[in-house]
Amino acid sequence: MIKIVKFGGSSVANSEQFKKVKEIVLSDDSRRFVVISASGKGKNADNKITDLLFLCHAHLEYNISCDNIFNMIVERFVNIKKELNLKYDIEKELDLIKSQLDKKIDLHYLASRGEYLTSNLMAEYLGYTFIDAKDLIFFKYDGSIDYEKINLALSEIIKTQSKLVIPGFYGALPNGKIKIMSRGGGDVTGSIMANVVNADVYENWTDVSGIMTADPRIIKNPKHIDAITYSELRELSYMGASVLHEEAVFPVKEKNIPIHILNTNKPDDEGTYIFDKCEDKDPNNIITGIAGKKDFSIITIKKNQMYNKLATMKDVLDILGKYKINVEHIPTGVDSISVIADCSKVSSHIFEVLMEIKTVCNADDVYVIDNIALIATVGRNMKKRSGISGRLFGALGKNDINIYAISQTSEEINIIIGVSNNDYENTIKAIYNEFVDKEKI
Ligand code: ASP
After folding, report:
1. Same domain, 262 and 127
2. Are residues 393 and 366 in the same domain?
3. CA-to-CA distance for 61 and 103, rounded, in angstroms?
4. How far apart are CA 252 and CA 190, in angstroms?
5. 37: domain CATH number?
6. Is 80 exceeded by the pLDDT of residue 47?
7. In a shared domain, residues 253 and 296
8. Do the domain assignments include residue 238?
9. How far is Cα 285 from Cα 38, in angstroms, rounded to an integer?
10. What are the tens digits of pLDDT across the range 159-194?
C-alpha cells in the first residue's frame, strides 16, 4: 500500500501543527511520500508565507524596502525551528535569500522558498529525506508536466531513499529554472506524485473535514459529502467551492486513484472520498452539492429574423475574445442570443464592447443585465431522472426568485441557473431545502 500525503499551509502553520503532522505520518507505514505547502495561516500566524513572499517581490519591483516583511518570514521559520529543536541551518538559507533581495530577483524562485524551507524543516522533524522539487517535478516549456522525466528522476531517488518530503507548488523547466504553479498548487504536486508512484490513495490533509453540500457561510452546518466523483467536484470547484486546486483532479483521474480529503486537526473524522465512480449508499440522494458565484453579466443580442445565427454567434464570441471576456453560457432564442459572461475586467468600457457587437452584427438591439449570480446544482444521480428540474424551479418559484437564465448539458450532472446577485443566498437556501434538508430554512 502506498499513500501520498499532502499537507496544506494551515497544517504546517506553526510548531503545534508540525506535531500533528508527525503523528499522522508516523502512525501509518504507507505514508512514505509527503508533500508540503508553505507555512500558512494558523494560531498566532496571521499570514501565509507565500503571500509575504509575493509581497516582498512587489515591494522590490517598486524599489521599496521589503526588510520588515522579510523579517516576519524569518521570525516564523526560526520560531518553528527553535520550538521543535531542529538543527537545519535555516538562518543560513534565509541569509542567502536575503542577499538576493533586489529588483532582479526572480519571482518564481522567491515565491517557491516558502515550500522549500517548510519542507526542509518538516523532513528533519519526520526523519525523512528532503527532495527539492526542482530535482523531481519537471515541466516542459509549454507548461505541461514531463512525466517521463519525473519517473526517471524518482526511480533514481528511490534506489537509495524510501521516505521522502517534497515541497509542493513548484518544479523546474527544461533549463533548470524554477517554475511555480498557480496558487494552491501544492495540491497538484500531490496529485502528480500519486500518479507517478501509482498510489493506492492520495490523502489531502487540510483544515476542514471534507467537502460540504453547500457553503457553511450560507447554510448552517450543511450536510457532509462522504463521496463525490471527480466530475462533480470539477463542477463544484469551478463554481466556487474551494476545497482542492481545480487541476489536481487530472493526474489522479488518469489512473483512477481516489483522493481522500482529511482534517489535520481532526484526523479521526471520515473526510470525503473523491472517486471516478461512486457507489451510492442512499439512492434517494439526488443532489451532491450546490455552489455558486456572483457578479456575472448577461449580454443579449436581438436581431429580427436572425437567419444566420451561427455567424452572429461567431462575431459576438470574436469580439468578447478580443476583450478577453470569459464566456460561461450561451442560451439562445429564435431571434436572440444571450451570452453569460464575466464582464468585471471590462466594466469601465462595457459600452464600447456593446457598440462593437451592435455594429458588427448589425443587431437591432444589444443590452446588458449586470449583477447576475450563477448557481450550480450538481449531482450524478440527476441523470435520467425526470422531475428534478421541475422541483428545482418549483422551489425557486415558491420563494419568489426570478430566474434569468438556465443551462444544462446532456451530461446531466449539473443544472445552472442565473439569478440576481440579491437572490444568491436565498436561492442556495431554497435548493438546499428542497433537495438536501427540509429543516434548514
Ligand atoms: N503556498 C502556495 C499558496 O499559498 C501553494 C499551496 O499552498 O499549495 O498558494
Report:
1. yes
2. yes
3. 5
4. 9
5. 3.40.1160.10
6. yes
7. no
8. no
9. 38
10. 999 999 999 999 999 999 999 999 999 999 999 999
How far is ligand 1, taken at its centre, from the CA of residue 169, in Å?
A: 6
Q: How far is CA 274 from the centre of its chain?
A: 14
The total domain count for the chain is 2
How far is Cα 339 from Cα 316, in angstroms, rounded to an integer? 9
Residue 221 lies in a domain: no
CATH number where 373 lies? 3.30.2130.10
Tell whether the torsion through CA atoms of 352, 357, 358 and 362 is positive or negative: positive
Spatial separation of the C-alpha atoms in residues 227 and 194, rounded to whole Å: 19
Mutate to test the pocket of ligand 1, among 37, 73, 108, 207 (most ligand atoms within 8 A of CB): 37
All residues at 6 or more sequence positions from 366 whose CB lies less than 8 Å from its CB, including other chains: 299, 300, 301, 302, 354, 357, 358
Q: Are residues 22 and 131 in the same domain?
A: yes
Residues 367 and 271 in one domain: no
Q: Looking at the structure, do residues 120 and 260 belong to the same domain, yes or no?
A: yes
Q: Are residues 93 and 175 in the same domain?
A: yes
Ligand 1 midpoint to CA 110 (Å): 13
The answer on pLDDT for 421 being more than 50 is yes
Q: Which domain holds residue 100?
A: 3-208+243-275
Same domain, yes or no: 328 and 268? no
Half-sphere exposure of 288 (CA within 13 A, CB side): 31
Q: What span, in angstroms and rounded, lies between the C-alpha atoms of 202 and 233?
A: 15
pLDDT over 50 (residue 440): no
- Nearest atom within ligand 1 for CA of residue 40: 4
Task: Provide the 8-state DSSP code for 393.
Answer: H
Q: Alpha carbon of 131 to those of 85, 94, 116, 214, 312: distances in Å?
A: 21, 18, 9, 38, 54
Range from 120-124, 393-397, 410-414 carrying the lowest mean pLDDT: 410-414
CB of 171 closer than 6 angstroms to any ligand 1 atom = no
Share of residues in the chain with pLDDT > 90 (%): 75
- Looking at per-residue pLDDT, the higher value among 306 and 30 belongs to 30
